[in-house]
Amino acid sequence: MMPPRQPDELSKAPDGKPMDQQPKWRQDFPIDVPQDNYVSRRDFTKFMVLTSGAFVVGQSWIGLHNLMRRFRGKPPEQPIASIDDVPVGTAMSFRYPRYEHCILIRPDEDTLVAFNSKCTHLHCPVRPQLETGRLNCPCHNGYFDLYTGRPLAGPPRRPLHRITLDIRDHVIYATGVEVQPV
After folding, report:
1. Mind listing the pLDDT tens digit for each residue in 16-38?
2. For the chain, what is the radius of gyration of the CA atoms?
3. How far apart are alpha carbons 147 and 135 in whole angstroms?
4. What is the DSSP string of 107-126?
5. Burial (CB count <10 Å: 0-12, 13-18, 19+), residue 158
6. Distance CA 132, CA 12 (A)
7. Concatenated DSSP letters for 6-36?
8. Which of 14, 88, 153, 163 would suit a FRET pair with 45, their CA atoms being 20 to 30 Å apart?
9. Dihedral sign computed on CA atoms, order 138, 141, 147, 150
10. Mind spelling out the 3-state secondary structure of 39-86?
11. For residues 76 and 166, is the Cβ–Cβ distance under 8 A?
């Protein structure tokens, strides 16, 4: 066991001068510079074990989450709206499956498209611009094609997830989520 050190020995100024020649603020708040730069093997080992453990837990959680997503299967079919509720040149929002925000667009008489409304860059909600034929992400000025969901400009690189639709008896149904390739 090391003998206790005197208070003056605890602090060694960075310039090496004795403490009585240091400014008042340094005398009032002395810092033991050699001790401040010292990292013991035990502290380093603790840091490495804790950091590695955090990475293992994080990676396991991501892997488990992806595995559970595969076993969930196809989302159930869900009615969205009547075809009469979506006039030509309009869009409406809905949730599918369950909590995901989506957008249904009817740009012309014969076309109905639906996409997940989260931008593939940083998940800001996209907004339809029917007059320009694009979907706009206002957060970073990203643009997607209104008909395909493909990125046209800005930071997004991946297309929007397409919601597959089916129309029966004038009712629009969401039937699945199609993840489009890059």
Report:
1. 888 888 889 888 887 777 777 77
2. 30
3. 9
4. EETTEEEEEE-B-TTT-PBP
5. middle
6. 69
7. PHHHH-B-TT---GGGS-HHHHHS--BHHHH
8. 14
9. negative
10. CCHHHHHHHHHHHHHHHHHHHHHHHHHHHHHHHHCCCCCEEEEEHHHC
11. no
Q: Categorize the per-residue pLDDT at 51 as very low, low, confident or very high, splitting at 50, 70 and 90.
A: very high
DSSP annotation of 181: -
Cα distances from 13 to residues 9, 19, 40, in angstroms, run 10, 7, 21
CB 103 within 8 A of CB 117: yes
Dihedral pair phi/psi, residue 176, rounded to 5° = 175, 170
Q: Is the pLDDT of residue 8 over 60?
A: no
Strands in 127-129's sheet, in edge-to-edge order, are 127-129, 134-137, 142-145, 151-153
Q: How confident is the model at residue 93 (pLDDT cuts 50, 70, 90)?
A: very high
132 Cβ neighbours under 8 A, 6+ residues apart: none
Q: Which residues contact 27 (CB under 8 A, 6 or more apart)?
A: 19, 20
> Do residues 105 and 112 lie in contact, with contact meaning Cβ atoms separated by under 8 Å?
yes
